[in-house]
Design goal:
13-stranded mixed β-sheet; 6-stranded parallel β-sheet; globular; 270 residues; 35% strand
Amino acid sequence: MKKKYNLIKLFFAFLILAGFESRSQALSGGYTINQAQSTGGTNFQNFTAFANAINTNGVSGPVNVTVVANSGPYNEQVQFTQATGLSATNKVTIYGNNNKITFSSSNFNQGWTILMNGADYYTFNNLNVDAMGSYGYAVCITNNGDYNTFSSCNFSVTANNSNDYQIPVVLSASSVYYYYSGTTGSFNTFNNCGLYNGYWNVMLNGGSSPTSTMKNNTFNGCLFSDLKGVKPIVQRYTPPKKPENPHLSKDAAQKARQGRLKTNCTYCII
């Protein structure tokens, strides 16, 4: 009887250890995000669970994540860091299926909904990102967050508000202060995205030294709309810009306020 009891204990210990090892393995292959199901196997109940797993365990191959259609909205704040193993070959692609991730922050120090904190080689497709609180960056890229792509995504902050800490897309050396210069991000691409509301639609900050200068961040075919400030895109602490492009034309802000500014050019080529 004692022998049988010991075997049962060993069996359950094995199951616990196996479960621990499976959760600590590097990610590779296909996964889902679906809040209607608990985290387990290849499903994550929310973006936070997925971010925790990849930030901790890294990747051993390309990772494809499908947000199950009509499973949102996801009410959360999520941070991606530079996970081990991510590269131009081993990328992470998140298929949003037009779902929404939204967060309403009253915390000045954490106003973002998605924070790319040194995160590289992520692609987000068809995802709607809202920052609806008193302070709001829908997406903030900082700490050398490079080579990320956002395609057919929408970024929104609270409408009809003149608070300059409400900006849909921010690249800054700080996740708190949009105007900090230093290590921000380069080679990030926004394709056919919508940027709505905010004091500005985009804030780009580079650095004063060659090693901290941003470069080659592009906005292709994006719609800029309903800003309160004088420019859809503000660029600070970067080397001299190329000749003026449609973002900076005299009527750009007016067109953006009316939801009519859509460009098909590259901005901040450095």
